[in-house]
Every structure is written in C-alpha cells, then in structure tokens.
Amino acid sequence: MPMSADDLRAHLVEAFPDADIAIEDLAGDGDHYRARIVSEVFRGMPRVRQHQTVYAALKGKMGGELHALALETSAPVEAG
C-alpha cells in the first residue's frame, strides 16, 4: 500500500520539527514524491549524509510503502 503525503509529512516533521517541508506527489499515485526539507539539522553535513538522515527518519519505509523519493535538502540560508 502506498504512503500518503500526510504520512510522509508526519515522519519528516517528527524527525525535523524545525524544518520547512514541501512535498509533491510526482505521479499522483502516492508512491513517487519529491520532498524539499530545509532544516538546521543539515548545517555542515555533506549532502549524502543529509539524505541518509532523511532515509533513517522514514524508519525502513523507503523501498516498501514509499517507492521513490527525490530529495532536496539544505540548511537555512543565513541572512547577511
């Protein structure tokens, strides 16, 4: 059974409560999403580690309930 966008958001908010999160269902099937996550947690992390952190937050659902997830992760841009 596919994962709903609400369930995906709930997992991400639980793991990254400070984050600005945007989710897009790419195919309309609840199985292919794009998620943009901007969180202070990612500051100083290489991109690969950022993505690993997101996959860990999904608690094994990636590849099962969630077939495909295109990720855009970053730390907030500091005003200067």
TrEMBL record:
SUPFAM superfamilies cross-referenced by the UniProt entry: BolA-like (SSF82657)
Assigned protein family: Belongs to the BolA/IbaG family.
Name assigned to this protein: BolA family transcriptional regulator
Native source species: Brevundimonas olei
